[in-house]
Amino acid sequence: MKYVVATARAPFSHERVEGNDVVRQNVGGVASSLRRLMLDREGTWVCWGDGALDSLHQEEKIDNYTVSRVIIGKHEKRGFYDDFSNGTLWPLFHYFREKIKTEDFSFDSYLSVNRKFAERIAKHVGNDTVIWVHDYQLSLVPGLLRRMLPEAFILMTWHIPWVAGEFFSILPQAKQILQSLASCNLITFHTDIFVRNFLETHEQMLGSSMAIKNRVAAIPLGIDNEYYSAQNPSDSRRRHNPQRKTIFSIDRLDYTKGLKNRVLAIESLLSTHPELRRKFNYVMLVTPSRTTVSDYVLMKRELEMNIGRVNGKFGDLEWAPIIYMYRKVSDNVLKNHYRFSEIAFITPLIDGLNLVAKEFAAASDDGILILSKFAGASADLRSAIIVNPYDVTDMAESLYIALNMGQEERKARLADLKAVVRRKNSSWWIAKIEKEIIKRGSGELNSPESKDN
Ligand code: ADQ
Questions:
Q1: For 67-86, how does the pLDDT look when each residue is reduced to its tens digit (9 = 90+)?
Q2: Which range, 28-37, 110-119, 223-232, 288-297, has the best average confidence (pLDDT)?
Q3: Which residues of the chain are in CATH 3.40.50.2000 domains?
Q4: Ligand 1 touching residue 354 (CB < 6 A)
Q5: Helix, strand, coil shares of the chain as percentages rounded to 5?
Q6: Ligand 1, from 86, 159, 327: best to mutate by most atoms within 8 Å of Cβ?
Q7: Tens-digit pLDDT profile for residues 304-355
Q8: C-alpha of residue 243 to centroid of ligand 1, in Å
Q9: Is 3.30.70.141 the CATH number for 2-222+428-452?
Q10: How many angstroms separate the Cα of 92 from the Cα of each of 24, 202, 376?
Q11: How far is CA 110 from CA 3, 33, 91, 266, in A?
């Protein structure tokens, strides 16, 4: 099987560093799983060339596959990425009704960038190629491609939640997006809930059909377990303060991640259990994200005010409950945090999956995972302490339980989590998806319903 993969984010970008052209590899679970797939299977990876020097490298052979970069102008980027993808679709698919922007002009840019992607993909498609499109930034690509290539096999993996049909229908362009997705041969989500929501949406807006049911599957992305569980010999030098337990989290700065509620949970914990003063640190690592979107700027200010308030209320000359860091960190630093933190506190208000929870389970020596029930990963990671991220008292109580949990229970829970993550790793994810592709074949496209779409 050969692939043309399409993602908004690039696997590699060319940046200008002190006047030199430097190739940067993009981090993140999706990029690394797909990089491995491309190394094995060859083909083309179509992506957005957003690096400063990417326009000089629009087609580039990397190892045994081609990276084909779509170049987007400044104005178009704003409409496509800032406004429609992240100002409209992102809040829509995470149930943030009040944040959904519906200006028409941004949709035009979104459509035109999706068209650029579709045209570029079409150029690279051969006879036996599977086209694999990823995520909400490229939702119109399948429909556009279907018109150009009626017989092609198109697969879409949707990495974020799919919301209830009634909520989705808020979007003026809802039908257009749904019709595009319905023209795929296969659509995968991370959980059964998202599959059910998608089918219910389809039934409400386009009618019920067996054909669409047969084209949708829940296959959660796995991580590279070996990478995260491998120990680095220099790790022991970087252990956290052994006198204090470490509660750890890492997230992009995003309103879906529930960051402020975590700070409030720390406040609640210390108010109800003052004996825990100086007994722990909450290391809160936050990665800059979407810094040109205004909601994110305001959210950062609010988060930092709350952290300052809680540290001011409980801290002293020798101790502050929250150690807040706003930056990117290297993979090795991240792995050290995973490995040596006693507790991972991963409580998004809603999340398609959440790879951090899985990475922590793989890397941890002896840790406890506190996980939101609204993270897609909680469907598999049942041995975590599962919390409601809207319930600050529940989260504080879970922290208390975790800080006092005996070794036997800790070990049993972690062993269960590790078993799941090991079994459903990134190779399992690819194998499962390829099995579904083979099961469906491309003959299905000749059905009358798919031609209507
Ligand atoms: P993503 O943001 O692609 O989201 P997520 O699951 O949130 O993925 O994981 C973030 C990834 O980035 C992890 O692999 C983590 O290790 C890495 N990372 C984060 N901060 C970092 C930092 N400061 N330094 C280095 N690495 C960092 C979308 C959906 C998710 C879904 C994924 C995958 O929103 O719900 O889990 O895709 O399908």
A1: 999 999 999 999 999 999 99
A2: 110-119
A3: 2-222+428-452, 230-424
A4: yes
A5: 50, 20, 30
A6: 159
A7: 999 999 999 999 999 999 999 999 898 889 999 999 999 999 999 999 999 9
A8: 30
A9: no
A10: 31, 17, 17
A11: 24, 26, 16, 40
**Rounded to an integer, what distance in angstroms lies between the CA atom of residue 159 and that of residue 189?**
6
| Contact 160 CB / ligand 1 (< 6 Å) | yes
Q: 323 CA distance to ligand 1 centroid (A)? A: 21
Q: Which of 9, 27, 194 most suits a substitution to test ligand 1, by most atoms within 8 Å of the C-beta?
A: 27
Instruction: Read off the pLDDT of residues 276-304 as tens digits, 9 standing for 90 and up.
Output: 999 999 999 999 887 777 778 889 999 99
Pocket test for ligand 1, best of 356, 359, 378 (most atoms within 8 A of CB): 356
Indicate which atom in ligand 1 lies nearest the CA of residue 329. Answer: 24
CA of 160 to the centre of ligand 1 (A): 11
What number does the ligand 1 atom closest to the CA of 250 have?
20
DSSP secondary structure of 332-362: HHHHHHHHH-SEEEE--SSBS--HHHHHHHH
How many angstroms separate the alpha carbon of residue 265 from the centre of ligand 1? 23
- Tell me the CA–centroid distance for residue 271 and ligand 1, in Å: 32
Query: Which region holds residue 61: left if phi is over 0, alpha if psi is between -120 and 50, else beta?
Result: beta
Report the chain's mean pLDDT, rounded to a whole number.
93
Q: Which amino acid is residue 433, in one-letter code?
A: I
Helices 192-206 and 174-182 cross at an angle (nearest 10°) of 110
CATH, domain 230-424, list 3.40.50.2000, 3.40.190.10, 3.40.50.300, 3.40.50.1000: 3.40.50.2000
Atom from ligand 1 closest to the CA of residue 285 = 23
Q: Are 247 and 341 in contact (CB under 8 A)?
A: yes
Q: For residue 453, what are the CA distances in angstroms to 77, 101, 173? A: 28, 27, 15
Does the beta carbon of 27 sit less than 6 angstroms from any atom of ligand 1? yes
pLDDT of residue 210: 83
For residue 69, give every residue at least 6 positions away whose Cβ sits within 8 Å of its Cβ, in sequence order, or none. Answer: 10, 46, 47, 48, 49, 54, 55, 57, 58, 59, 60
Which tens digit of pLDDT belongs to each residue from 354-402? Answer: 999 999 999 999 999 999 999 999 999 999 999 999 999 999 999 999 9
* Positions of E strands within 224-278: 245-252
Q: Is the CB of 227 under 6 A from ligand 1?
A: no
Beta-carbon contacts of 77 under 8 Å, excluding residues fewer than 6 positions away, are 50, 109
Going by alpha carbons, the residue nearest to atom 12 of ligand 1 is: 28
